[in-house]
């Protein structure tokens, strides 16, 4: 365990929050004792893939290929990839309405995600769920959830299931800052704690529940402070800093696997796009958005990896090119995929 | 107490049914159990047979459940499998769903069905929809039990019959067993079912006794039961109203009115065939249920008949007897007046058959 | 010309109750209309003065043609304001009267008396069942009296009207053999609903049902009939199964029973089965107890000796052939049978034996009847039957319910009356 790790744990939540905003100094190589260079390159690849997936989805939306709305997580990629980097394929995850990044980070194929967005049979939900219910059970993603806080108790149930079945899997439960004021959040944290269940609660605090800022909605300064009420560790990390996120994630996963029970990670980040496609950004300033744009997690991660010699500029170019090809292939796949038939409208309501 | 035979018994005559039952009773060693004991026995059988099955609920462990349904199961199976939850209906319902999604078979007890209002989000938005939203990639084999109904003096927040709420949601199955036999058989069927099943148990039925075979058996979900054949009118009843309707039918028989009584048993799926075939024979339909009359299960039954080919066989308006348009009151006389009782069923059916409606 | 019948396209005015210029009140009968099926009065759809009365009687007029107008009483004094609707008319729209003119689809759904006000007569109350039955029976629902609340026509109103309007039964194909003396029949029970007709077996009479009826408590009216040569019908002789059948059919038609349930035992079972297909007999169900007519064999010993038995001793010997437990047919049965024998010479039964069961053979078959039966049917028999071999009850169509009592003989209805009655009631219920 590196010096930075100890330092991370010792800093108070408030201090970490301050650091999030004021200080974006990249982590040293010692931050990644558990990740190989190859894993780091894959992490970068996933962050690019998420970014380009969402940009392409936005483009497809504007061209009328996507039905309904979507919630983009552009700017939050380090948080999704950082948490999932600490998870095994056998670990579970519940996600949120802003769940594209989580889904890709956990290992989903963008081709089937596009197919879902286009409402096709090859989509992860056979075109029945769309963006807001995107899931990939094969990689442990039990689904994005249209109800704020809806996935949190379910994650606790999955953890209970793992414990009862003596399986070593842990569960990461993603939710936003808005969910921290839902009863489900509090009930779920309490139960996970009393039963010492292997859950990592991940609050991706992007500052706003739709238009309502956390300052206006939440009594505590940091959501992580809620953890103390449920007798579990709570930590604030810079959600735009891959190294910070991944370090906290590994620690929480380790605790969970060792029977130490749940943890709460508050990953402070920012959604660069609006809440959904209908957002007119009336509740925040251009300056605020630009400040966060300057702290883009992908650029920061690339600089860090370059500095550490994990990747070269040409390797980054290759990653970007790979991602472009992947996205183009995925869209072609999704476009060609058959649409569900109306005859099967009520299929999957009950088991056949 | 009448029980059902293994095959679909809807059109089996009373006497043949009785004979069949006697034979069954010998073969399977049926004996009298209370409704609550029958449920407890089903829980024990399921937990014995399948270690994935476990119970969750408030005070179901050492306390034995508010209505002593789980009794001393905790001593037999331990607190890991008879789990007391905090008073967190919403969260605990979600926990049950998460467990069901990943290989377990939770059976969740609401202390009172009224408290399910706290958990509606998880039941309606999650349990009922996950399979569909994910295109069939998951299923939610969850059983929830809801002690419900009035008659205990528990007033407005502990006496409701909310089954129609749930029956309105595709993705859920909703049953209301009315006998100890069905209580055990429906519960075992629900546990074996891959989808979420909501079981509404009337609190006044818990102490009612009836023949219950030993061992494992199931009552198919979605099948109504003919309790009493008759020629003049079909009474479709649910839960405790089945017994009040049977008592009414007995009284009416003395006046020469032969009422057919059907125990709906399952609200979703709804056994429309049993209803239409009966109405085609009797030409009259009365629905009796405890839930609030307006927009209740009676509306669905009535509409089903009106939409079906049984419409042409109706020789009188369809009648609904349901709960009054008010919360359940505390005063015992008011409480009784708030839901159908045997005399009100007798009077309504008599009027209908005699062409006064 | 109002539409008073579903498939009516034209009608004739048979008489007017009012004259040109008469003042009429809404609801007052103003003329009579005759269709192919019925004559009925038509009421004024509005109050006012009759104008332009069509005087043509007994000439077919298309539905929708104008036969008169009713002027609003006030309309005469003051000129109608411009743009005002014309006065209420008896027809939905004025159209030229032309005999070949067919009503347009719009007019075909007009109520029978169209009126701007939509008065009560135009929306006759009737239950769906009544409407369905009226359609099936070819009756005009609007011509029926309703006994339900607010004059609602109910199913039984239609059935009653149907029975009254029923044509006489067609001439029998066996008219020549019909006896002048009608068969003896007796109402054994009063009750409600479709009657049950009981037809006894060979050598018995309608009284043989009494034990069964006492246990059955059917609730329906029950008519017992004595077969030719039996009981109170000794004056009729049996020439053949067909002749016997026709006599029974004739007797039943004379009762005008309407829809009925047929129950028969042994020979009576065969008669009941055959009756279900006779013209003028509207059978709802068929309940056969140890029926004859399904196979060739019958116990010759019994058939030849039973009609001739004159003493208690002779009868007592035959009783174990009839029932598994002889105690079922105790001394009272023997006494009753002997009393019946004393009323006649016994020659009738010998004749019947020769005509129906020569040489221990059943000379008639009703199998073909059962093969294409359109009503529910049950056969009840005992596996210990020594009169008619139980094997005869096999190979029947799947729609016929077979109830075999392992421990009973030839008379299940007397050996286990309650259980057999239970099956009968189940069958009767299934027809409702």
What would you note in describing this structure?
The complex is a heterotrimer of chains A (352), B (357) and C (432). Chain A has helices at residues 3-10, 13-22, 37-62, 77-85, 100-105, 110-117, 151-164, 183-194, 214-217, 242-257, 286-293, 297-308, 313-336; strands spanning 92-94, 171-176, 199-205, 208-209, 212-213, 234-238, 263-268. Chain A is an alpha/beta fold. In chain A, the strands form two sheets. Chain A has a five-stranded parallel sheet, sandwiched between helices. Chain A starts with a helix and ends in a 16-residue tail after the last helix. By secondary structure, chain B is of the alpha/beta class. Chain B has two domains: 29-212, 3-Layer(aba) Sandwich (Rossmann fold), CATH 3.40.50.970; 225-353, Rossmann fold. In chain B, the strands form three sheets. In chain B, strands 3-2-4-5-7-6-12 form a seven-stranded mixed sheet, with helices on both faces. Residues 1-27 of chain B have low confidence and may be disordered. In chain C, 27% of the residues lie in helices and 16% in strands. Chain C has helices at residues 105-108, 128-137, 155-165, 210-216, 241-255, 267-275, 300-305, 312-322, 331-342, 347-356, 367-371, 412-415, 417-430; strands at residues 10-16, 23-24, 29-34, 39-43, 48-51, 61-62, 69-71, 185-189, 196-199, 222-225, 259-265, 282-289, 377-382, 400-405. Classes of the chains: A alpha/beta (352), B alpha/beta (357), C alpha/beta (432). Chain B binds chain C through residues 11, 13-16, 229-231, 256, 258, 281-283, 311-316, 355-357, and chain C through 127-132, 147-149, 152, 154-156, 192-193, 219, 418-419, 422-423, 425-426, 429-430, 432.
Q: What are the low-pLDDT stretches of chain A, counting only 5+ consecutive residues below 50?
A: 1-29
Supply the CATH superfamily name of chain A: Thiamin diphosphate (ThDP)-binding fold, Pyr/PP domains
Figure out the total of helices of chain A.
13
CATH topology of chain A: Rossmann fold
Main CATH class of chain A: Alpha Beta
The CATH homologous superfamily of the largest domain in chain B is named Thiamin diphosphate (ThDP)-binding fold, Pyr/PP domains
